[in-house]
Specification:
Layout (H helix, E strand, L loop, with lengths): L14 H9 L19 H6 L4 H5 L16 H9 L25 E3 L2 E3 L2 H11 L5 H4 L2 H4 L2
Antiparallel strand pairs: 1-2
């Protein structure tokens, strides 16, 4: 049950989901984000590169029903693709809804080092996670196929 095994576990409105999980019978989904057919999007590459759920979807752990936190329109996506170091987090924190980016008052320890700046951490994560160049990830063919 992924997220719902940990969040909103006793919410009555999620009973159909729990029933579906137990019985294997599909339920009807209502899309929150419906991207155009010409847009290619893959969650797994974003997760593998350290983009947290919160970055795109907002505080889903506080949403009784999912809603569209961000537009996911092209310009919004490109803002992240142009400066990914501002948004990356350690992979073990991707699903952590309470993760806070490093600051002077709240450093983040990763890979044996303390970070006091998101850009410094993001730059190291970009290298560690082998992110492609900004030119590559802002190329039209990255998302339009």
């Amino acid at each position: 049950m992924n997220c719902h095994a940990e969040m909103w576990t006793s919410a009555e409105m999620l009973q159909p989901l729990r029933t579906s999980f137990r019985t294997g019978q599909s339920i009807q989904w209502n899309r929150v984000h419906d991207l155009p057919d010409f847009v290619y999007f893959n969650h797994s590459i974003h997760i593998a590169k350290g983009v947290g759920c919160f970055s795109c979807h907002g505080p889903v752990d506080q949403m009784p029903l999912m809603y569209e936190e961000n537009t996911l329109q092209m310009e919004w996506c490109l803002n992240c693709h142009r400066q990914p170091e501002k948004f990356l987090r350690p992979k073990e924190e991707v699903f952590n809804m309470t993760y806070q980016q490093p600051t002077e008052d709240h450093p983040v320890a990763w890979n044996g080092k303390k970070y006091f700046s998101q850009v410094a951490l993001g730059d190291d994560l970009k290298q560690q996670y082998h992110l492609r160049t900004v030119a590559d990830i802002t190329s039209c063919s990255t998302c339009h196929r």
